[in-house]
Amino acid sequence: MLVWERPEPPDRPVPAPLSRERIVQAAIQLADADGLDAVSLRKVAAALDVGPMRLYGYIATKEELLDLMVDAVHAEIRPTGDSWREVLRSLAETTRQAAHQHEWLADLLGGRPQLGPNTLASGEAVAAGMDGVDLDTVVPAIAAVNAYAIGAVRREITERRAERASGMNQEQWQVTFGPYLQRTFATGRFPALATVVHDGPHLDADQTFRAGLDFLLDGIEARISA
């Protein structure tokens, strides 16, 4: 029986009452503060001031705990809009917002579909928002937007982690490595790339995300119109 269907142990009078919700929220707080490496059943039990064995009545494995954490955060990913385009945009933007709020989420998105109630509710909102669009377009369109959002947030989170690890923000990194690129481009070996770097737009993370999403949505709109 999956964790979503397995009943919790009955309530009993104890100094520190438990529930799956309390366990998951404690795990999320640990992950928000120090990443997924800070999450284990032992550490969660310590945060709740209970013995680790008590958690096993609610959660069998760490993998179940991670699934529950991802599903809890999906309560923040509820796409809305009055058209399929607005709904798909909302899907991408709320996914990005949730990943920036919970950096560890970027490490767990993708792969096999999540089956928790909040995740299914998010999927229902997207599917309902695309009512009237041919299913042969709906399925790959949703997959494409999910793939775009996940790839974008992983790139952004990787950049954020690199800044922390190196102590250099993007501008400082550019100052450090700019002279190398100038010397390399001066050789004439990479003329197209040099033009892009020198003359192309320099967008921030928000602008880059929205521009790429617009390109994707424009393509989906062209397919629907055709």
Short description:
The chain has ten helices and no strands. By secondary structure, it is an all-alpha fold. Helix 5 runs antiparallel to helix 6.
Please supply descriptive tags for the structure shown above.
10 helices; 0% strand; mainly alpha; 226 residues; 66% helix
Structure description:
This protein is mostly helical and 226 residues long. 66% of the residues lie in helices and 0% in strands. The chain is built from ten helices and no strands. It has helices spanning 20-34, 41-48, 52-55, 62-73, 84-101, 117-129, 135-166, 170-186, 191-199, 205-225. It is flat. It starts with 19 loop residues before the first helix and ends with a helix. The mean pLDDT is 91.
Topology, element by element:
Elements: H1 20-34, H2 41-48, H3 52-55, H4 62-73, H5 84-101, H6 117-129, H7 135-166, H8 170-186, H9 191-199, H10 205-225
Helix pairs in contact: 1-2, 1-4, 5-6, 5-7, 7-10
Termini separation: 45 Å
Arithmetic mean pLDDT? 91
Beta-strand portion reads under 5%
How would you spell out the order of helices and strands? Answer: HHHHHHHHHH
Radius of gyration: 22 Å
Helix and strand composition category: mainly alpha
**Total of DSSP H or I helical runs spanning 4+ residues:** 10
Shape category: flat
Summarize the amount of helix as a percent range.
Answer: 55-70%
Number of strands: 0
Contiguous runs where pLDDT drops below 50 for at least 5 residues: none
What kind of sheet is the major sheet? none
